[in-house]
Amino acid sequence: MAKAKPKPSSDDVYELLRWKILDHEIPPATKLNILQIAQQLNVSQTPIREALRQLQGDNLVIATANKGYSTTADLDATGVKDLFEFRLLVEPWAARASASNRLGNPAKELIAELSQFKSTTKYKKRQMIEHDQRFHRAIMLATGNEVLIQAYAQSHCHLHLFRMMENEWDWKKSIEEHAKIAQAILKEDPAKAEEEMRNHLQVSYQGFIKSVQPLSVFTQKLH
Ligand SMILES: [Zn+2]
């Protein structure tokens, strides 16, 4: 007799739903039918509800009074601008701080991260976002500033940007920019590390803002 498949845990359900939302398999701003999801995944409603609470923490799902759960909308032009203004405030500083701290210098980790990135897999987009998340987080962690680390984590910038990412995303360019940042940090050159991070974020901002809305007011370089 064939063994029954083990039922997915709430962590599995969370992971599954998270990718469905990130990949737009469940579109933005869509009502979620808990009963239907439970039937599709062949689990009870409890792990679904737990997973939805976790997704709420990621800002990928919102609970509305009497209406249950919905996926959040993709970022609009203002949302993208706000997110990059925040990143431009903290990340160039973090790159500078980590480049001048010998003990906490994350260069080795960053270089290892870059060499591990696999561009050959069919899940290139996922690999890229996971690499990007680890790369930027390692620089944040190297600052040792808990307030900053937490604020950055709570922006969930990678989840939200991933949702908007086009398939023809120029990942090679991002990898090159990361390599420049890692080299500047390795050489303990704070000014260069800051400059390369700022440049990387400006390039990234231009890419995302174009994909949301060609509003001239927002397509200018951020300060
Ligand atoms: Zn990056």
Automatic annotation (TrEMBL):
GO molecular function, one term: DNA binding
Record's keyword annotation contains Transcription: yes
One Pfam family here: GntR
InterPro entries attached to this UniProt entry: GntR_C (IPR011711), TF_FadR/GntR_C (IPR008920), Tscrpt_reg_HTH_GntR (IPR000524), WH-like_DNA-bd_sf (IPR036388), WH_DNA-bd_sf (IPR036390)
Domain HTH gntR-type: 7-74
Name listed for the protein in its UniProt record: Unannotated protein
Record keywords: DNA-binding, Transcription, Transcription regulation
